[in-house]
Specification:
By secondary structure, this protein is of the alpha/beta class. The N and C termini lie far apart (about 85 Å). The strands form two sheets. Strands 5-4-3-6-7-10-9-8 form an eight-stranded mixed β-sheet, sandwiched between helices. A two-stranded antiparallel sheet has the order 1-2. A hairpin with a 2-residue loop joins strand 9 and strand 10. The longest helix is centred in the N-terminal third of the chain and has 29 residues, at about 5-30. It contains six helices and ten strands, in the order αββαβαβαβαβαββββ.
Length: about 220
């Protein structure tokens, strides 16, 4: 084989290898960050924790959620249980919530959440808890003194060891002090049985996004 042909083959192989590596890096970078959809931080990125335990809320779901809430998020306290990267609470702050409370049980994920808040200069508006959401929610809700939105995104029950989490959460919620809660919002696996009411809040809407559904609970009309 002529040397110039060998050179072309070698060059093609190297270029294909290099292109493949670039595509891989770009995919990894895209996967490793979430973009804020709205508010004064629109377009900023949130790094995701490098762990298999989080299931970040997709952009289309966050957009739908805040389109539904609209101006109701303004000056609210936004509580994000099972917070992960904190993408939903961070979006709420970007869109005008006066404070966000984040609860995350995994220490490595919690650390990334804290770094995200500092990076976006939101740490002064945030209250973070390294804790089990089921254990700490009662005291957080009891100590609320202003209207709040409670957002719940527990791990899907298909995850090993989390099969009874939804049931435990649904049993716990009606026993909590929900006096200041204006909305409860569930991000859950589609097809899960959801009660018609939680305390003084009633199920008002469901939006499906493939395997994920968003359920809204709002105050009953008097």
């Amino acid at each position: 084989m002529p040397s110039n042909v060998k050179f072309k083959i070698l060059l093609t192989h190297l270029l294909m290898n290099y292109t493949g590596q670039l595509v891989s890096i770009m995919k990894n970078n895209n996967y490793a960050k979430l973009r804020i959809n709205g508010g004064y931080l629109k377009g900023r990125s949130i790094p995701l924790p490098d762990t298999k335990f989080t299931r970040p809320t997709k952009s289309i779901i966050r957009e739908s959620l805040f389109n539904h809430l609209g101006a109701n998020v303004l000056q609210m306290i936004f509580i994000e249980a099972f917070a992960g990267s904190g993408s939903v609470g961070i979006e709420a702050l970007s869109r005008g919530a006066k404070q966000a409370i984040f609860i995350e049980a995994e220490s490595c994920i919690y650390q990334q959440l804290k770094e995200n808040l500092v990076h976006l200069q939101l740490d002064s508006l945030a209250n973070t808890h390294l804790a089990d959401s089921l254990e700490i929610l009662p005291s957080i809700l009891l100590n609320l003194n202003a209207p709040a939105i409670l957002y719940l995104d527990p791990p899907f029950p298909i995850r090993i060891g989390k099969e009874s989490l939804y049931e435990s959460l649904l049993l716990l919620l009606p026993t909590l002090c929900l006096q200041h809660i204006e909305y409860i919002i569930f991000e859950v696996m589609s097809g899960l049985n959801i009660p018609e009411s939680l305390g003084h809040l009633t199920h008002s809407k469901e939006r499906k996004f493939g395997k994920t559904s968003i359920h809204y609970y709002t105050k009953r009309e008097s």
